[in-house]
Amino acid sequence: MSASPAAVEPPEPPARPTDLGALTGVRSGKRSFYPEYVRSMERLERAVEALDGISQALVRSAEGPRALVEAVVHAAAEHLHARWLLLAVADGALSAVRPRFLLLDGDRLIDDEALLPAEARQHLAVVRARPWEAGRAHAGDGWVRAPMFLDGEPVGGIVARPGPGLEVAATDLAILRVLANQAAVALYNAFLFQSATRLRGRTERLTEAAARQARDLAARNAELAEAQRRLVDAMHRQALDDERHRIARELHDTVAQHVLSAGMTIEVCRADLERMGPEAAEVARRLLPAKDLTRIAVERLRGAIYALHNASDEPAGPLPEMLRRLSTVHLKTDLTVEVVVRGRQIPLPAEAERSLLRLVGEALFNTAAHARATRARVRLAYRPDAVTVTVSDDGDGDPAAIRRLLRLAQTTDLAGRHQGLVNMLARAEQLGGTLTIRRARMGGIALRVHVPLPVPERTGWHR
User: Fold this and answer.
1) In 3D, which of 201, 302, 293 has the Cα closest to residue 251?
2) CA atoms within 13 A on the CB side of 387
3) Beta bridge partners of 395
4) Which one of 100, 172, 334, 364 has the largest count of C-beta atoms within 10 Å of its C-beta?
């Protein structure tokens, strides 16, 4: 019986390195490789610790480049058990990043080139000028080097002397490269963050400056508009003053002279008639009222001329003071005017105060010219919600008749007669107020203007 051929054990297939094997360097799980397995586990633990150090370093990027570089240097030195480790940025790369290098020497961190040991200064010069050389192998010289890349370009590197007895494997160099590259990215991000912060700060300052300039410009525009309004108002006032002076000169040079001449002629004729006998004396007696009328006409013309000449001299100031000064013009010498102010003064728009002043002036002129009054009272009352001005007299005016005249003047062309009443009503309505006419306690007319507060700012006030 033929013997069966001996079973031949198939050859063991060649080991295929796995990812873990590439990381740890272990090619077999057999017991004969246990020491290598132990060493690989130690490298793996150190790799995990280094990765943890990397993560701790990266989360410090918000603290600024200095804190980040310090964290990376400490993590790399701890992984290599290195007492001496240098991280440096190449000249021309990441130009705004500070510090440009950092040396860990024992427990000291050095960023001053004057304090560097000579040996460290040599490595710093190489990384600065030729950072790509940090990636070249330097077998047997006892130094570990790792380049720092950003967008595929060398921008610096790490140089260290591992601790005594530490066998540097490929995994250690890989971790050192990871640290170096992550440091480059984090430094660049920190640079961008700081640049964005500075840009944001500058933008905020520019925005604030622009807002401040806009406010200043608005204020200047408001001042310019106010100056322009005052200039236009001054031009209008000047035109009115010129016209008033022209009318005053015309009244003085023609009308007043004619009235005076008429009065003198009446007086001469009356004296001649008294010498011509009883009948002529009776005619002279009848001419005596005409003489008085011419005298009154001359007084009123003089008052009007004085008012026209001094209208432009209305004093700037509070309304009560302007009313007191107004009471001394536009009037007959035998009319006494009293100004009474009640309540706490409330400033009004300048045009509103001038409008009230002219309204009171018109009322006082009418009192002096038509009411046969000896006394007049101007009462100004301030209340929180309104201002009231009342002009009263002791004359013989009839409120009902004046109200009828006002209604008639509003609807009928009276060739300028009673236009003063219409002007007073227009001023009161323009102020948002009302004009009432009633019997005064003094016996004559009480003209009352009631203006609610606040008085709006307007242009084109009735003049």
Assistant:
1) 302
2) 21
3) none
4) 364
